[in-house]
Write a structure and sequence with these properties.
This is MULE transposase domain-containing protein. By secondary structure, the chain is of the alpha+beta class. The protein has a domain at 245-451. The protein contains 18 helices and 14 strands. The chain has helices at residues 92-103, 109-119, 126-155, 196-210, 223-232, 242-269, 272-275, 292-295, 297-306, 318-337, 345-386, 392-413, 433-447, 465-481, 487-501, 506-510, 519-540, 549-557; strands at residues 5-7, 17-21, 38-43, 47-51, 54-65, 157-165, 173-179, 184-191, 213-219, 238-240, 281-284, 288-291, 561-564, 567-570. Strand 7 and strand 8 form a beta hairpin.
Amino acid sequence: MTLYIVMNRKTYSEKHETVRVSYPKELNKACIVCGSKVKFKYPDGGKLVHTLEGDIYQVINYYACTNEGCELSEKTFNPSPRFDYGDGYFGADVFRLVADEFLLFNQKPEQIHYRLITAYQLDISSATIARMCDDILKLKSLKIDEKTLEIIQEQGYILLGLDGQDPGGDAPSIWCFMDLISNRILATCKFDSLDYKVLRDTIEEILKLYEVKIIGWVSDKQNVITKCHDTFYLEIPHQYCQYHFLRNTWNHLVSLDSTVYLALRKVINGLYIHSASKSTKVYFENVGKISVRKVFESVDKDLQTMIKVRNKVFKELRGMWLYETLDGYVEDMEQIIKDLDPTFRFTKIAVRTASALKTALLEVKENYEHSLPLFRYFQQIRGVFGDDKTSKTVKKARLSKIYSQILADGKLMDPTLRLEDCKSFLPSKKRNAVEIMGEWCRLWASYLPGLFQYYSFPEIIKTNMKLEQGFGKEKQALFNRVAKANVAHMVATRGEDYLRIKHCTTEELKSDIVKAYSEELIKQLRAELSKSIKQSTATRRTRSRQYKGITIATENYYHQIEQKKGEVVFVDDKD
């Protein structure tokens, strides 16, 4: 930054240097609006500014244009860069450093505070830095919105992705509207409740702002979204998120598989070699007295390691893996036991252990055998979705064939299975393979109209995962800033701004924050944040809530009826 200094007088005290900021020399006293000469009016009262290089006493000379027709003839101004920013008493260089640390390096206010006091010996509080971070967040968010408007208008259309986020507690949900081509946040809105008409009004406001058309929708097929689209925007292609479709399908398979895993884990944890007392010692032939846990420690370690297995989404099921691994392990145990003396204590405990495991395997064998073909079907389905070289028609034909086979297999297991009788249900361990097959086919029929709409988009965009990932980045950034207990409050009050800074370019984050600063603007942004904080805090305070549950219940569910000449009339019935 170039500083324009007319006079560098002696300091008024031994502590501070006084610096007068005059008119820029290169402007040669020309007005920045009309080019006429300017004249000196007065200096300000001066103020102490804390910069990274030390404290200075800044005095600014103010000028006015000599052209009476110029708007700056009645206003005093000075376009020279200043040491401070706004009404603050910390230097612009401090504000810039805090912005870079916060935006580019994801530092917490406490970490920035530590750096300032150790590297620059700056007398500043952590609370002041936290307020600066909030100012920076709001300012940068505003500038990102301005840049988004330019990008979308130049692009000429919107591929709309939309989804909601629950901040937690009683806070309103945050809905995010994104252009999936440019990966820019179009708008964020808070809703205590949302219906398809309110959603339509919100979308219309977005269209009015950006003045471009929507060429397609991408969503996870929430009811409110599909109803809004089908009612008001039916002519626009609506892509249902393929990831959510596959995940919904996968979750039912995981539930069935968990019956295998949980049953085997329970038996393994209940084995004598795992639960026996460590301190109790018994006699083992040719060895002496030693605890059972110690003797079979290696076996128990193997089994405990096995049950630590986790599902790999779309790739591996832990129950299936555990069944197959344990089955092979028991076979190995039985082969070794054959060569042991059956009268030895070691042999007896080993036989009992192998028998318990074999019995457990037999009990879950049916569910394992049902999971196996479903897992294979799932991999076939996933393979078709992942093949971008095939046409829409070929994909639909291949998938239809797979689902027809699934339904046929289900009918072989239960002849009463009918697709039209299948009802939606959440994943549950209580559901059997036939019910899951029916649900898979029902899901396919329900999602089919929107699974391949992406073929009409300018880019291959099958999912709204960019939105999901954005919510994840936002929450991770807030976890990095505050304790877990305060994350919900931060999402409710600052989440919308964090979403924006996570969906912009590094160049935008690097841009000079001081140039975006104005005292009038920051006061407005602070007022908005303060209002949001008060609303969020009020919903979390039990004493501030109004308890009208009985009134609501009575109005909604208690209706007196009056008889009038053969007709029933509901009292207080609303139109």
